[in-house]
Amino acid sequence: MIFATLLIMTTPQPPPAPDLEDLHPPLAAYVEKRWSEVDAIPDERRAALDKLAGWVRRSVGASESASLTFICTHNSRRSHMTQLWAQTAAAVMGVPGIKTFSGGTEATAFNPRAVAAMTRAGFDIERPDDADNPHYAVGYGPSSPRMEAFSKVFGHEANPKEGFVAVMTCSQADASCPFVPGAAYRVSLPYEDPKASDGTEREAGAYDARVAQVATEMLYVFSRAVPSGDRHGSERSNP
C-alpha cells in the first residue's frame, strides 16, 4: 500500500487537456484538433519550446506574471500568429498572468493573408479602420478580452521595456538581433515564412500550415508552463 501511494505521488501527471468552454465554437474545434497533434512535434523543436515553457513557468511562479514579445523582421505574419496563439494557449491551458506582445525590426502591417488564415482557424478578427497599418481587434471567445494587433517595431511604447522573454520567430531577425534591449531571456524559435507562397495556388495552404504549426507548438508550451500544483491541484513534471 505504501509503495503504491509513493508511485502515485512520484509519477509525473500528464498535462491537462485544454479548457475549450470559453472559445468560439469553430476555434474550440480547431484547438482540439491541434492538441491531438502535440505528440508529433519533432524533438528538435521541443528543445526550444521547452526553454520557453521553462522560463514562463519560473516567471509565473516567482511573480505571478510573464510577458512574452514575439519578434520577426516586419511584424506582419509569424510574430502576430505566435503572439495571438500564445495568449490563447495560456488561457485554455490555465496559465495565469500571461501578457503577449509582438514587434519587428521594422513596421509594415499585419498581412491580410495572415489575418485570413487566423480567421479560418476560428478567431474573431475585426478591422475597425482602413489605415495602411490597421489596428485589428482579435477575440478568441465571446467573453474574451480583445487583443490589439498592428505592426510596430519591438521597442514600440505598446510593448514591455524590460523583464520580458524575446522570442525570435524568423531567422533574419534572430541573426540581426543577437541582443534584445530589456529582455530578461531570449529564445530562438524561427518559423518558415509563408510569404514565399504569396500569389500562388499554394498560398492558402501555406498560411494554414503555419497557423496550425504555431497553434500546436504554443499549446505544447503552455501545457508545460503551468506552475507546479496550479492547475487542478496537480503536480507537473519539469520540461
Structural commentary:
With 239 residues, this protein is of the alpha/beta class. 39% of the residues lie in helices and 15% in strands. A four-stranded parallel β-sheet has the order 2-1-6-7. Strand 6, helix 6 and strand 7 form a beta-alpha-beta unit. Helix 5 packs across helix 7. The N terminus and C terminus are likely disordered.
Could you give a quick summary of the protein structure above?
It contains 7 helices and 7 strands; from the N terminus they run αααβαβαββββαβα. The chain is an alpha/beta fold and 239 residues long.
Task: Give keywords.
239 residues; three-stranded antiparallel sheet; alpha/beta; four-stranded parallel sheet; disordered N terminus
| Total strand segments | 7
- From the alpha-carbon coordinates, what is the Rg to the nearest angstrom? 18 Å
Strand percentage, roughly?
Answer: 5-15%
**What series of H and E elements makes up the topology?**
HHHEHEHEEEEHEH
Distance between the termini: 30 Å
Sequence of strands across the biggest β-sheet: 2-1-6-7
- Dominant shape: globular
| Main sheet summary | 4 strands, parallel
Q: What is the averaged pLDDT score?
A: 90
DSSP helix fraction: 25-40%
Structural class: alpha/beta
What low-confidence regions span 5 or more consecutive residues with pLDDT below 50? 1-11, 231-239
Helical region count?
7
